[in-house]
Design brief:
Layout (H helix, E strand, L loop, with lengths): L3 E6 L3 H12 L4 E7 L2 H11 L3 E4 L8 H7 L7 E6 L5 H6 L4 E4 L4 H35 L4 H12 L8 H11 L6 E6 L2 E6 L5 E5 L2 E6 L2 E6 L2 H7 L5 E5 L2 E4 L3 E6 L5 E5 L4 E4 L1 H11 L2
Parallel strand pairs: 1-2, 1-3, 3-4, 4-5
Antiparallel strand pairs: 6-7, 8-9, 8-12, 9-10, 11-12, 13-14, 14-15
Helix pairs in contact: 2-3, 5-6, 5-7, 7-8
Protein name: Chemotaxis protein CheY
InterPro entries: CheY-like_superfamily, LytR-like, LytTR_DNA-bd_dom, Sig_transdc_resp-reg_receiver
Keywords: Phosphoprotein
Length: about 290
């Protein structure tokens, strides 16, 4: 069973005690700390990097959603919201929370929510390990030799930490070696499969997730767009906006828009914004 490192965040001491007691009934759980304010939570998340944060929404100074905004630039753990107010439920799922539990916390309801987090954690570890093994197999097939074989042996005996995204674990090494990702591992509906990078039309950022647009289908993976950009071949892909990467082979034309921005029109008619900040880079990439 995969262990889960948990941080409890609530401005009420009794609420923190209740969650801690419930977690004591769960196997393979380590409570790494407690925070009684949003600002303290941000500092502890950055320092301790827990797998899961049991997070209150309503706190003075910095609320639960504010905590997530503050840690947006670093590793983001799974979040289980625990609060007395149900009007925040939709926002909780908008930020990809594992679940949302109302106070007073019912033991069975909490256990059900925590089981979701445990499964998500186990799936992330399994996906990361599978992605590393598949990437090693690919390198072996490319003739990388004994070093890759040694890597494969090591990976078979070690399970890594929480996955921040399958593309980064495989593609970062490729970029460092002058090669780039040819496939991206996607987890969806209980299965895992590869998407060839050449089949991707464009990529859209959504906080710590990205959507890979492939024809009329979109696949969502847990990865930051800046990390994914590093794994992609710059001869084929260009960052045109802080939240958009485009496959240059899919671009039909560019039209001037307002304030120095352009509209990039893809072959299927999709219209994407090319911001001034990225225009010079794109022009160099395409040889303009």
């Amino acid at each position: 069973m995969v262990s889960v490192r948990v941080l409890i965040v609530d401005d009420e001491a009794l609420a923190r005690q209740r969650v801690r007691r419930l977690l004591q009934n769960e196997a393979d759980v380590e409570v790494v700390g407690e925070a009684e304010s949003g600002h303290e939570a941000v500092a502890m998340i950055r320092e301790l990097q827990p797998d899961l944060v049991c997070l209150d929404v309503q706190m003075p100074g910095l609320d639960g959603f504010g905590v997530l905004r503050e840690i947006d630039s670093g590793p983001v753990p799974m979040v289980l919201f625990i609060t007395a107010y149900d009007e925040h439920a939709q926002r909780a799922f908008d930020v990809h929370a594992v679940d949302y539990v109302l106070k007073p916390v019912d033991g069975d309801r909490f256990r059900s929510a925590f089981d979701k987090a445990r499964k998500q954690r186990a799936n992330a570890v399994a996906a990361e390990r599978l992605g590393e093994l598949l990437e090693t197999v690919r390198r072996l097939a490319d003739g990388s030799g004994a070093a890759a074989a040694g890597d494969a042996a090591a990976m078979l005996g070690v399970v890594g930490g929480a996955a921040n995204g399958t593309a980064n674990s495989a593609g970062g090494a490729n970029a460092a070696n002058g090669r780039y990702a040819s496939r991206i591992l996607v987890k969806q509906d209980g299965r895992m499969f590869f998407v060839k990078t050449t089949e991707i039309d464009w990529i859209e950022a959504d906080r710590n997730y990205v959507r890979l647009h492939v024809g009329k289908t979109a696949h969502t993976i847990r990865e930051r767009i800046s990390h994914l950009e590093e794994t992609l071949d710059p001869r084929l892909f260009a960052r045109i906006h802080r939240s958009t990467i485009v496959n240059l082979n899919r671009v039909r034309e560019m039209q001037q828009w307002f304030s120095g921005d352009y509209v990039v029109i893809l072959e299927d008619g999709t219209r994407l914004r090319l911001s001034r900040h990225y225009r010079d880079r794109v022009e160099k990439q395409v040889g303009v």
